[in-house]
Amino acid sequence: MPQQWVIPDTHGYLKTLRALLEEQIRPSKFDEIYFLGDFIDRGPDSKGLIDYLIHLKDDGYRLRMLKGNHEEWCIRAYEEELQLKKSFLGLKKPNIQKAEWMRFGGKETLKSFKVTNLRYFPSEYIEWMHQLEYYIELEDYYLVHAGFNFETDSIFDDRDAMLWIRDFNVSPEKINHKIIIHGHVPVSHEFIDFTIRKKQYHFIPLDNGVYIKKKGFGNLTAFEIKQQILLVQPSLDD
User: Fold this and answer.
1) What are the tens digits of pLDDT across the range 109-149?
2) 145 and 71 Cβ atoms separated by less than 8 Å
3) pTM over 0.90
4) Where are the alpha helices (DSSP H) in 59-165?
5) Element (H, E) at 137
6) Fold (topology level) of 4-234
7) Alpha-carbon distance 179 to 133, whole Å?
8) What's phi and psi for 7, nearest 5 deg?
9) Domain locations in the chain?
């Protein structure tokens, strides 16, 4: 029976992702692998990680990928950079989006692409980020990067919430009593395991903060939906 794996925020940790996929999951081309976004920033090889995923999909593996807030940050910073013009004094206006993005991992991403000027970031990778999905509906689950805004009637129209929201109270009737699987906010391994085992929860947060050097964190996780298996891969990129 094909398996269904969900992998949260990978953040440029290519060696860690490869170990998780190739040594632990070892997927067949009949399995489905869902990624919850945040492929870039913080880690050392954002470009290599994206190239790896593109190669897997081109090779026939069944991958579906969501957009994270870090992809959105990169897109906004890139598009603002292209629109900025110098003033009549020859001074360039500040790129507000870029300044924010750089603080939270953009610097590492530019380094992995071997560019120092965001204007020369390869446009095909920006297009790849543009085409990422916002959420995925499965038989018993909704997959999303951050979560949903349950304060609105049309939760599937609020795309900003899907990328950025940090706290939400689930209204089960708005998601057909399915369970939300999300990333975005790092939580401890113990809490991830707890939400999987305790069936009363309407959400499973999978992000263990692969980049965080702290007890209970610093791993890349993978959750198999059908058998309720949680795999943990310690970081290999630091």
Assistant:
1) 999 999 998 999 999 999 999 999 999 999 999 999 999 99
2) no
3) yes
4) 69-83, 96-101, 107-112, 123-130, 159-164
5) strand 135-137
6) Purple Acid Phosphatase; chain A, domain 2 (3.60.21)
7) 18
8) -125, 125
9) 4-234
